[in-house]
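Marked as duplicate of an earlier ticket. Keeping the data here for the record.
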Amino acid sequence: MPLPHGAESLTSLRRPPVGEILTLAQLDRDLFRGESHTPARRIYGGQTLGQALVAAGRTVDGDHHPHSLHGHFIHPGRSDLPVDYRVERVRDGGSFTTRLVRAVQNDRTILLATASFHRDEQGLTHQDTTTTPSPTPEDLPRFEHSLSASDLGDAEWLRRLLVNVGVEFRFPGEYPRVANRRGEQLPPRQRAWVRTPGVLDDEPLVQAAGFAYCSDLFLLSAALPPHARHIDTPGLKLASLDHTVWLHTPFRADEWHLYEQHGYWMGGGRGISRGRLYNRDGMLLASTMQEGLLRFR
């Protein structure tokens, strides 16, 4: 089947190198520096989350692995400047270790995050959540190939996304944003298979940070479909305020997983979305939550 007109140029775009983004320079015992490696004016929120988790993890014993990350976005970050990550060793325990990370540009805090690390142990297990069947990612087209020629004709938003965010994604159904651009209202739910475009280092910390990087993509926008609005709707100001990632079990962020998102509340200029990440067998691997600014002028 021939590709829609315009899809070829999108396919050839260079994606951000997530492996390089998650490789930090160590400037001092508890001080690390990260770079953006993208042409964007502002830093993608998932980048600071992923880099903050790497910085925290570099100060933790290797037998403790990340299980939660809580971040507050304080100021927008600039992609043309490095970000310094200042780590505070809040607690070093036998089972749990806690770190506070301050991401700084030009002496201004852009992200304040806490990360907790847990030594592996055995315990009771259950999972009270499931996902509905979905085509495998191999049976789905690349996202840019799934759009119609008319959708691609006004797809500068997609070009910006592909060159500025290093996440590969494929939707089992139509991406709600496309329907919203047609003026259609939909339930506040969306799901996509996601992974980093390139293979990441095998280190569990890097794989966990890889998902922290991916987890910010689309999450807040799950609150918009009932209102027939999308993130580029004129007059809409959208910004992440805080973001949480819970990692339930180790997995590889550079392999396909199904990311389900539900924008379950919106009001007063804010919205809250939650996400669940499943493997191909329906096992819950991670959970996310995000509150953000959704202000219409």
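See parent ticket for discussion. The chain has a mean pLDDT of 93.
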